[in-house]
Amino acid sequence: MPLLPPIGAEIPCSMLAINTPLQIRTSLLTVDFRGGIKHRVDVNPNDPMNSERLRTVGFKMSAAMTDENGNGGGSVTIEQNDVDADPKSLLKVTQTFPPKFEIITVLDFTMTIEQSGNGDEPWVLTTKDPAKLIGTLTQYPPKGDLYQLQSPVDLMTWRTRTPWSRRSRSSRPRSAGSEQRRPAESG
């Protein structure tokens, strides 16, 4: 039985990032992102027997924001920037028995921040460099596995491509650059 999914398969996975620290200007918020990602499996010409490229064909997560008093304060949505024309995400078999995999998910995304009640237009930001999530899995598609964000994600304004706030980091608060995301279920 092959360990890697068949070429051409599209694999949907739900994602959950609880207690994600998010810095907006000078405010540090904690939000819970929910959403999902879908990969299409491609050949990895560099190592076709032990790994595959994963083309992101869908990615979206969103979170509600609250103000200091716990009232609704808007929302944050993260979505795939564009078509993944040159897939850089990788699924690799690291051990055949028992099966172990390494997955590196590379994402360019847009973050839209809508704050209610302030009359401002939504802020649309994009990644300066792609985010890289790395996971060690016991099965693929993953079920409840943790991914670690390789480093904090710098965002820039969409129109001018200039740096925005200092950083946005995703998932559990830990030391800088060690945040994690959990794809909860596939399907």
How would you describe what is shown here?
This protein is an all-beta fold and 187 residues long. The protein is built from no helices and twelve strands. The chain has strands at 10-24, 27-43, 51-66, 72-80, 89-95, 100-107, 109-114, 123-127, 131-137, 147-149, 155-157, 180-181. Strands 1, 2, 3, 4, 5, 6, 7, 8, 9, 10, 11 and 12 form a twelve-stranded antiparallel sheet that branches. A hairpin with an 8-residue loop joins strand 7 (109-114) and strand 8. The radius of gyration is 17 Å and the shape is elongated. The relative contact order is 0.21.
| Total of helices | 0
Average pLDDT taken over every residue: 82
Structural class: mainly beta
Number of strands: 12
Strand proportion, as a percent range, falls in over 45%
| Biggest β-sheet description | 12 strands, antiparallel
Q: Ranges with pLDDT <50 over ≥5 residues?
A: 164-187
First-residue to last-residue Cα separation: 21 Å
How would you describe the shape? elongated
Written as H for each helix and E for each strand, in order along the chain, the element string is EEEEEEEEEEEE
C-alpha Rg, in Å?
17 Å
The helix fraction, in percent, is: under 10%
How do the strands and helices of this protein lay out in sequence?
Blueprint: E1 10-24, E2 27-43, E3 51-66, E4 72-80, E5 89-95, E6 100-107, E7 109-114, E8 123-127, E9 131-137, E10 147-149, E11 155-157, E12 180-181
Antiparallel strand pairs: 1-2, 2-3, 3-4, 3-5, 4-7, 5-6, 6-9, 7-8, 8-11, 9-10, 10-12
